[in-house]
């Protein structure tokens, strides 16, 4: 039996849903249409003789139609780590227009918004020297600019300067690689070329990576798939990237996607603590701790499966339409299918899947936010309340496993959750484009996307009328769920047990946990049924 990876237990993933354009549609500032609006962005990582990048020089040349002026021009700059003062010379905005240097000042109370102190005439050039987030600071959500191994990466929203003028500029992004190691290469969610062209709002929802990167496969792609990473984890990185390519192919087949699409995985091995991943359209990035080789470590396979799953399980409205967050569905259903398909595909070691089932189940019954309704969770941020955020994953794994068991029971085993979800998601993908990340932010979603009410109707039709009540009590109102004991097939059984009342589902909670004994609570965990052989665990 392989030893279970320590990293799989740290798999918080975040799927970002709001873009500047989406926010504008949702009642923000009006969208300004200017066909001549363009922005040329250069990011130059500066090492200054150090092994790692010290800061990044961002230069943006902002063009509008001839003669356009702006009496109150402001830009939003990427944020540095909270509570850590910027070193001298960094986090400073400089602005130039045809009249010369434009005085700029950070708004009081918002150090990320810098405002021109006079009217500007376009074109305007903005430069900004952005800090790296240092070792030991938060790694997920993974938007922030990071460096290790002489490489650099971040999400557009976390590394670019955005004009706050309601214009969605046609943008061109490229790295200036002159101070990175010779042979450095680049990738992004959109292209591997060092010339990324897309609307600025699209760039904001895109990860960029540059430096001396490893790559799988060495050249080209495998049915659209390629992975890039830097650094050395304790596990066999090329083997894990081959594994996620196989999971990508398995999931594509499972969800009925016949033509491969471009898909990119980016990994950054950072000094511990480093954990979690973030999925964006057609790519994801993950963070894992660098460390000495340990042949027993399998790598964060369940995290990689979860992130890959976001390619297919995308946004849905809150039940009742109460807001744009789709966490209850996007993370909950995705976590269920990540675990279930890791098991059913035969790709993941059995004990790894078993451990993830119990990790989430233990966290569910010890999570102080276990009974939070879906719409309350939707209003929390993983930055401020990680327990509320992870509650959706924990609850989702158990809820959807229970739905599967209910549908099987109601149909004498002829149907299961796949029978409901496969056609719904296929229809959504076919009619609704690629299920992009904005979906959850749009009332009603894409044309083909189903609503929570349609989903519940389908579940109730297949699983019986009590499904509506279970959905309403567990998802909508947050009532504690005890799923069917056989919801993960004949090999595993849910049994009552006692657990120390201590939550360990987020890195913050683990860091804060004291060793002082705590009372035990009534809970449930999965147990391996010893009489059932391993060969029967993957299909039921
Ligand atoms: Zn996720």
Strand-helix topology:
Blueprint (H helix, E strand, L loop, with lengths): L12 E3 L4 H6 L12 E9 L8 E9 L5 E2 L3 E3 L16 E5 L2 E3 L1 E4 L2 E7 L3 E2 L2 E8 L14 E3 L2 E5 H4 L2 E2 L6 E6 L9 E4 L7 E4 H5 L2 E5 L2 E3 L8 E6 L6 H18 L8 E8 L6 E4 L2 E7 L11 H9 L17 H18 L5 H17 L7 H5 L7 H25 L6 H15 L20 H12 L2 H11 L15 E9 L6 H6 L7 E9 L12
Parallel strand pairs: 1-22, 2-15, 20-21, 21-23
Antiparallel strand pairs: 2-3, 3-11, 4-10, 5-9, 5-14, 6-7, 6-11, 8-9, 12-13, 13-18, 15-17, 16-18, 19-20, 22-23, 24-25
Helix pairs in contact: 4-5, 5-6, 6-7, 6-9, 7-9, 9-12, 11-12
Bound molecules: zinc ion (ZN).
Low-confidence stretches: 1-11, 16-27, 433-445
Gross geometry: globular
Number of domains: 2
Task: Report the bound ligands by name, code or SMILES.
Answer: zinc ion
Q: Which percent range describes the beta-strand content?
A: 15-25%
Tell me the strand order in the biggest sheet: 7-6-11-3-2-15-17
N/C terminus separation: 23 Å
Count of helical segments? 13
Q: Which fold name corresponds to the CATH topology of the largest domain?
A: Immunoglobulin-like
Q: In percent, how helical is the residue content?
A: 25-40%
Please compute the radius of gyration using only Cα atoms.
24 Å
Q: What is the residue-mean pLDDT, rounded to a whole number?
A: 90
CATH class categorisation of the largest domain: Mainly Beta
Description of the molecule:
The chain has 540 residues and is α+β, with helices and mostly antiparallel strands. The protein has two domains: 13-289, Immunoglobulin-like; 364-536, no CATH class. Helices cover 28% and strands 24% of the residues. The chain contains 13 helices and 25 strands. It has helices at 20-25, 156-159, 200-204, 237-254, 301-309, 327-344, 350-366, 374-378, 386-410, 417-431, 452-463, 466-476, 507-512, and strands at 13-15, 38-46, 55-63, 69-70, 74-76, 93-97, 100-102, 104-107, 110-116, 120-121, 124-131, 146-148, 151-155, 162-163, 170-175, 185-188, 196-199, 207-211, 214-216, 225-230, 263-270, 277-280, 283-289, 492-500, 520-528. The strands form six sheets. It has a seven-stranded mixed sheet with strand order 7-6-11-3-2-15-17. A six-stranded mixed sheet has the order 1-22-23-21-20-19, with helices on one face. Helix 4 runs parallel beside helix 5, helix 5 (301-309) crosses helix 6 (327-344) and helix 9 runs antiparallel to helix 12 (466-476). It starts with 12 loop residues before the first strand and ends in a 12-residue tail after the last strand. It binds zinc ion. Zinc ion (ZN) is lined by residues 13, 15, 279, 306, 310, 331, 334.
């Amino acid at each position: 039996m392989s030893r279970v990876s320590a990293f799989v237990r740290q798999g918080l993933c975040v799927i970002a849903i709001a873009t500047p354009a989406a926010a504008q549609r949702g009642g923000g500032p009006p969208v300004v249409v200017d066909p001549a609006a363009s922005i040329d962005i250069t990011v130059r990582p500066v090492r200054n003789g150090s092994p790692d990048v010290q800061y990044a020089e961002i230069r943006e040349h902002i063009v509008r139609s001839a003669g356009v002026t702006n009496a109150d021009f402001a830009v939003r700059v990427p944020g540095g780590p909270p509570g850590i003062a910027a070193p001298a010379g960094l986090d400073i905005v400089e602005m130039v227009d045809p009249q010369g240097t434009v005085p700029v000042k950070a708004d009081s109370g918002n150090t990320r918004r810098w405002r021109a102190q006079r009217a500007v005439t376009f074109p305007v050039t903005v430069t900004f020297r952005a800090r790296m987030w240092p070792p030991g600071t938060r790694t997920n959500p993974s938007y922030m600019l990071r460096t290790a191994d002489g490489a650099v990466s971040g999400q557009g929203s976390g590394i670019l300067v955005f004009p706050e003028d309601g214009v969605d500029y046609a943008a061109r992004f490229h790295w200036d690689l002159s101070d990175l190691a010779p042979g450095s290469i680049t990738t992004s969610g959109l292209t591997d070329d060092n010339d990324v062209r897309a609307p600025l709002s699209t760039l904001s929802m895109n990860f960029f990576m540059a430096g001396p990167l490893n790559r799988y496969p060495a050249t080209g792609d495998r049915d659209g798939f390629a992975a890039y990473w830097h650094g050395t984890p304790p596990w066999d990185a090329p083997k894990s990237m081959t594994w996620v390519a196989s999971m990508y192919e398995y999931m594509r087949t499972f969800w009925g996607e016949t033509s491969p699409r471009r898909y990119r995985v980016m990994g950054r091995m950072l000094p511990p603590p480093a954990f979690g991943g973030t999925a964006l359209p057609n790519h994801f990035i993950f963070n894992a701790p660098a460390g000495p080789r340990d042949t027993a470590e399998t790598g964060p396979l369940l995290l990689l499966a979860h992130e890959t799953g976001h390619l297919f399980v995308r946004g849905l409205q809150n039940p009742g339409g109460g807001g744009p967050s789709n966490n209850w569905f996007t993370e909950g259903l995705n976590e269920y299918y990540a675990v279930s398909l890791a098991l059913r595909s035969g790709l993941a070691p059995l004990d790894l899947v078993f451990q993830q089932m119990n990790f989430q189940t233990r966290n569910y019954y010890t999570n102080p936010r276990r009974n939070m309704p879906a719409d309350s969770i939707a209003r929390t941020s993983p930055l401020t309340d990680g327990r509320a955020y992870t509650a959706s994953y924990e609850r989702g794994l158990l809820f959807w496993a229970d739905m599967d068991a209910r549908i099987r029971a109601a149909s004498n085993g002829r149907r299961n959750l796949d029978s409901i979800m496969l056609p719904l998601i296929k229809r959504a993908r076919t009619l609704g484009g690629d299920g992009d990340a904005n979906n959850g932010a749009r009332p009603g979603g894409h044309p083909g996307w189903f609503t929570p009410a349609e989903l519940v109707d389908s579940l109730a039709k297949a699983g019986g009328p009590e499904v509506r009540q279970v959905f309403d009590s567990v998802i909508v109102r947050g009532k504690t769920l005890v799923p069917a004991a056989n919801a993960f097939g004949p090999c595993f059984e849910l049994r009552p047990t006692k657990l120390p009342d201590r939550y360990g589902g987020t890195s913050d909670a683990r860091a804060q946990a004291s060793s002082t004994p705590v009372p035990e609570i009534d809970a449930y965990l999965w147990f391996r049924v010893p009489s059932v052989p391993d060969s029967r665990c993957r299909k039921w």
